[in-house]
Amino acid sequence: MSITVQNTNWITRSWRWSAPLIAIALLVLVSVELQAQSLEENMQKQDSVAMVAPAAVNINSASAEQLALALSGIGSAKAAEIVAYRAEHGAFSSVEELLNIKGIGRKTLERNRYRLVVE
Length: 119
Known about the structure:
It is a single chain. It is built from four helices and two strands. The protein is mainly α. The protein folds into two domains: 1-52; 57-117, Orthogonal Bundle (DNA polymerase, domain 1). The chain has a two-stranded parallel sheet with strand order 1-2. It is rod-shaped. The termini are far apart.
């Protein structure tokens, strides 16, 4: 009977140390799996955003309708002002020249910079 008690004590002592280690190992594995899934989802989102990202618009030749559709924060009225400014002052020499149009600020320009070209 004393052999059984000694074996039981050894098992109990081992379990006290191994149970937390097993729990930690499981948590690490679950965390790694969740991070891998999150990374994969982010890559899929980036791929889908790249597929639907609008093509660059040439501010020297685009119509008001094209500008309104392509630019964030620019509606049809502001797009018409861009076209009117272009007609009055000639072709834009740089994207920054859009800042001369009332109602187009630095934030709007920066938000749309990757969509704009001057040709």
